[in-house]
């Protein structure tokens, strides 16, 4: 029977999204998208997401091992007014991330969390996983990404260790769907070895991170023991990109947009160039490297540059037995975000050049302003289903040795009504 | 197409908005400079909840006769809604991205009848 009563549209609970909006409300469209695409039945691993460790900095500094530094840091965290968190250098670009408040989740996440049985960041990460459709999430810190530029190399060690111990206790222990690639204090190679030996065997540690924003040659002999230990463990090393606005060349760029576009790629281009031309993949053939958060467009560019130059100057890279691009395609893994999608043909070409089917892994970079969704992969017209499944989760499962049983709760992942 | 009652015309103030669920679709209804505009709450970028974003005036950068610039400006007439996911902006009256007009929101049909606003989706 036809009813002629006009139905009423129902106002949404959140009329304007703000820093107080629940992650599940903010990402509700993503959850629906994922349901529509049947992602409930796909194994998805998000290889790069973030939490804001400075929110918990009072707790983190309690894990500093040096008793004098710990006391100083705890006093500072208790008494400071307005100054940045103890020991962190950050970057002034961090103030511009939200485009003047246009992208609120980049400013803060002050949503309500009732569950006090786990750390707040565990709840936020679970909400994000269930809304994006991820079974696992590898979580990185945020302002610590700049720590490689700290003038005191000791600070990097103190904080890397404190953060790692804190994150094991508070985050990793609470949920085995959350994993970490632990922070290596890369300015001090002997301390990297110590970190690998001390934490590398833990189940929640699926590999190691070098934050790429730093002026260090990754091919220096001092690093060889670090790579040897990591290779022995069979876990990968990730180069997580970042920017450094005060780098002399980037300091001429006045818009955050330009600085960010270049900075997040430049550091990894430099490290990759050194990595390949010095034959690190030849010296450590079982050491897998992952190149994180530089997007993908730089990879074909660098492959072409290095290949052309290599053929003219082979004597300068005598360790190489193949073309630079062969190493970049066969020995290196890449994460998707921020995937450049505005030039579809170029993207298709990129996927082919990096052998995306086996080398590419989905990453969201949630909750940052340029985060990506799994549907960006499922919707690509030029990929077969197996490639999509590999990129969304199976490549990561293979690299990190993760079981592929499905852990997410997409259907129940929304904000409860009422 | 089904018609849904959104609200009374009087209840939507100048620069007001109401984002509503109509079955399995969502629509944002706005009043901008006296006119009502209804847009599907799906961003052209990645289907984000664009109608629930913040509203800003379009940013302009006037160039002086001699080619120099000194200050930016907010437009007096162009009002943008900013998708909260990644910041795509859209003119609330045309639905078009100010940097690339080919990127646009999908307009939802609306009618005002006897002082009530309806959308058809
Ligand atoms: S979905 Fe709207 S800006 Fe990305």
TrEMBL record, chain B:
Q: One Pfam annotation, family name?
A: Rieske
What keywords tag this UniProt record?
2Fe-2S, Iron, Iron-sulfur, Metal-binding
Q: What SUPFAM superfamilies does the annotation carry?
A: ISP domain
Q: Which Gene3D superfamilies match?
A: Rieske [2Fe-2S] iron-sulphur domain
Q: What is this protein called?
A: Rieske (2Fe-2S) protein
**Species whose genome carries this gene:** Aquibium pacificus
Q: Where is the Rieske domain?
A: 4-119
């Amino acid at each position: 029977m036809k009813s002629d009563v006009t139905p009423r549209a129902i106002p949404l609970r959140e009329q304007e999204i703000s820093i107080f909006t629940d992650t599940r409300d903010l990402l509700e469209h993503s959850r629906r998208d994922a349901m529509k695409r049947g992602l409930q039945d796909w194994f998805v691993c998000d290889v790069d997401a973030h939490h804001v460790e400075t929110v918990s900095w009072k707790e983190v500094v309690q894990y500093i091992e040096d008793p004098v530094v710990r006391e100083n840091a705890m006093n500072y965290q208790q008494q400071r007014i307005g100054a940045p968190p103890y020991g962190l250098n950050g970057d002034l670009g961090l103030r511009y991330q939200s485009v003047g408040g246009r992208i609120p989740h980049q400013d803060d996440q002050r949503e309500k969390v009732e569950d006090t049985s786990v750390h707040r960041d565990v709840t936020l990460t679970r909400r994000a996983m269930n809304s994006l459709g991820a079974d696992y999430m590898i979580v990185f810190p945020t302002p610590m990404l700049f720590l490689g530029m700290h003038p005191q190399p000791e600070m990097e060690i103190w904080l890397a260790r404190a953060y790692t111990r804190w994150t094991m206790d508070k985050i990793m222990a609470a949920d085995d769907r959350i994993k970490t690639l632990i922070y290596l204090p890369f300015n001090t190679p002997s301390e990297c070895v110590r970190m690998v030996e001390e934490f590398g065997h833990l189940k929640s540690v699926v590999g190691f991170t070098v934050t790429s924003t730093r002026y260090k040659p990754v091919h220096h002999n001092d690093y060889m023991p670090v790579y040897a230990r990591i290779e022995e463990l069979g876990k990968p090393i990730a180069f997580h990109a970042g920017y450094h606005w005060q780098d002399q060349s980037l300091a001429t760029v006045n818009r955050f947009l330009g600085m960010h576009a270049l900075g997040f790629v430049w550091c990894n281009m430099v490290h990759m160039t050194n990595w390949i031309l010095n034959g690190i993949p030849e010296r450590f053939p079982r050491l897998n490297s992952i190149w994180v958060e530089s997007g993908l467009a730089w990879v074909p560019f660098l492959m072409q540059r290095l290949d052309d130059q290599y053929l003219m100057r082979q004597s300068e890279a005598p360790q190489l037995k193949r073309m630079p691009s062969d190493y970049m395609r066969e020995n290196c893994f890449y994460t998707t975000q921020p995937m450049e999608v505005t030039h579809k043909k170029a993207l298709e070409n990129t996927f082919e050049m990096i052998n995306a089917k086996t080398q590419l892994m989905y990453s969201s970079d949630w909750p940052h302003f340029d985060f990506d969704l799994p549907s960006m992969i499922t919707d690509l017209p030029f990929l077969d289903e197996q490639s999509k499944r590999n990129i969304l989760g199976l490549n990561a499962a293979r690299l990190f040795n993760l079981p592929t049983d499905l852990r997410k709760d997409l259907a129940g992942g929304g904000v409860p009504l009422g | 197409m089904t018609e849904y009652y959104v609200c009374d015309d009087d209840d939507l103030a100048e620069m007001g908005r109401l984002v509503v669920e109509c079955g399995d679709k969502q629509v944002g209804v706005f009043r901008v400079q006296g006119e009502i505009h209804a847009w599907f709450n799906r961003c052209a970028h990645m289907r984000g909840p664009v109608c629930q974003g913040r509203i800003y005036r379009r940013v302009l950068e006037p160039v002086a006769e001699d080619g120099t610039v000194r200050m930016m400006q907010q437009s007096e007439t162009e009002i943008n809604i900013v998708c909260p996911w990644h910041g795509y902006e859209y003119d609330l009256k045309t639905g078009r991205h100010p940097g690339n007009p080919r990127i646009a929101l999908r307009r939802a049909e609306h009618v005002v009848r006897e002082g009530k606003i309806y959308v058809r989706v």
